């Protein structure tokens, strides 16, 4: 459709599309065209542009992430003439993404390092080696994935990465699905979040475990979470986990336990005995 409406030759090395604009990249210059082919805005930057990505925003006011060969990372709004520098590295940029709340920036550099920064403080939060591309989970602020060396790595919070084999580059991540590009083929890969749920349960971080489980885990994982939370008297998480898998008998047990807790005035030792006896 766009090809039929823009009857002119437009040269570029990179291209992206927003709600009302085509953004073309050529060397150190970004140019915005509307869908009729009229030039709307142009930006000149200090170094060759290596990467560009649309990271959302209001219609006709979207934000772009731009990575430069000199290591600079810029944010550009399509309705604003002035780029904003987010961070500056010492090596060229290979890939970029912003977290769901726009609070954290993930950068892959030419040394194959994945570096995560706070957008507000510019502080380096953590880094992981062996990456060629990165994507944040659009449904969860603290989960990202990166590809490299034939592996897909899923990093959840401060937990060690979970890895599985993958050919190609990650380009997107939503819920428990990773979108990958291998040559000219786009594919969807289902990834488990069970490893993160189990690690959080081991740490008794039941709220974190529940939030991760909501992205997609097995019925056995939900039951494990419910039982562990119930035995630690994290009753609200336990209830929500059992409701997810329709374990009516455990929901009814929790109803009785909560009633007994109110009657006993907060003495939990007897409640745990009732749960274990059940």
From TrEMBL:
Superkingdom classification of source: Eukaryota
Keywords: Repeat, WD repeat
Short name of any one Pfam family annotated for the protein: Beta-prop_IFT122_2nd
Entries under InterPro entries matching the protein: Beta-prop_IFT122_2nd, Ift122/121, TPR_IFT122, WD40_repeat_dom_sf
GO cellular component: intraciliary transport particle A; non-motile cilium
Keyword Repeat: yes
Gene Ontology BP terms: intraciliary retrograde transport; non-motile cilium assembly; protein localization to cilium
Transmembrane segments: none
Domain Intraflagellar transport protein 122 homolog TPR residue range list: 195-278
Residues in IFT122 second beta-propeller domain copies: 4-186
Keyword Oxidoreductase: no
Protein name: Intraflagellar transport protein 122 homolog
Annotated organism of origin: Neobodo designis
Lineage: Eukaryota, Discoba, Euglenozoa, Kinetoplastea, Metakinetoplastina
